Every structure is written in structure tokens, then in C-alpha cells.
Amino acid sequence: MLNNRFLWIIVATLMSIFATWVLSDGSIIRWINALFMTGLISLVIAAAYFVINGGFFNNFAKGFSKIFTLMSNNALRSIVKDHEFDDSPDGEDSKVERKAWATQLIISLTFILGLVDIALSFLLLYFI
Predict the structure, then answer these.
(1) DSSP string covering 23-85
(2) How far apart are the first and last CA of the chain?
(3) Cα–Cα distance between 128 and 126 in angstroms, integer?
(4) 3-state secondary structure of 7
(5) What is the Cα–Cα distance from 89 to 49, expressed in whole angstroms?
(6) 34 near 20, Cβ under 8 Å?
(7) pTM, whole model, 2 decimals?
(8) Which one-letter DSSP state was computed for residue 86?
(9) What is the rounded CA–CA span in Å between residue 38 and residue 34?
(10) What are phi and psi of 108, to 5 degrees?
């Protein structure tokens, strides 16, 4: 599975480098700018996922849940709860594992793609 992820990362990185070269019309400065921007966008996507998945906003959600519980009637109390998920009794754990693997692949791909693009843009800028 690790080799498959590594292969996807290499293919996506090479495609990104080639696509930015084609879109830059052969100009080295445009290529450096395109590499830097695609790298920056990829790093922002990976960082946003890391912050959200890391549970940074869970405390805010629990705080608002408690506020709504205190200020509302019983009907709203039954709707607003702490959201804790149990294991799936349907045997859908394989779907969850596949989804987790896919998100892990996408995040590692965007992070490494961003790092490679930005590093290559700095390297090319140094040699100009």
C-alpha cells in the first residue's frame, strides 16, 4: 500500500511540474511563479485539512452545543448533542477504512506536491 501511495505522489508531482511548464508558454519566470502558486495552494489545502481533522474546531462545536442546550427547550435538546459515532453494526468498516485511506492519500499527495513545487521554484529562482 505504501508503494502505491508513493507511486501516486510521484505521478502527481511530475504531472504538476509538466502542466505548469506547458501553461507557462516556455517562460522560466512564469514557470517559477506557477510552480510557487500551485505549491502554495496545495500546502494551504493540506494545512486546512490537518487543522480541521485534528479536532481544532471540536471545542467550539461543543461550546455552541452546550449554549444551545441551556437556552432551548426539550425538543432542541434532543437534537443538539455531542456527536460520538459508534462502530458500524452493518459491517461497513471496510468502507470507512477505504475512505480513511483515500483521504490520507489525498492529504499526503497535496502536502508533498506543495513542498516539491515550492522547493523547485526556489531552486529555479536561485539558478536564474
Answers:
(1) HTTT-HHHHHHHHHHHHHHHHHHHHHHHHHHTTTTHHHHHHHHHHHHHHS-HHHHHHS----P
(2) 39
(3) 6
(4) helix
(5) 28
(6) yes
(7) 0.67
(8) P
(9) 6
(10) -65, -35
C-alpha cell at 42: 496545495
Q: Residue 113: which of 24, 18, 1, 29 has the closest Cα?
A: 18
* 84 phi, psi to nearest 5 deg: -120, 130
- Model confidence pLDDT, tens digit, residues 21-80: 999 988 899 999 999 999 999 999 999 988 888 777 888 888 877 777 776 655 444 555
**Domain range summary for the chain, segments of one domain joined by +:** 2-50+93-127
Run of H or E including 124: helix 93-127
Compute how many other C-beta atoms are within 10 angstroms of the C-beta atom of residue 83: 9
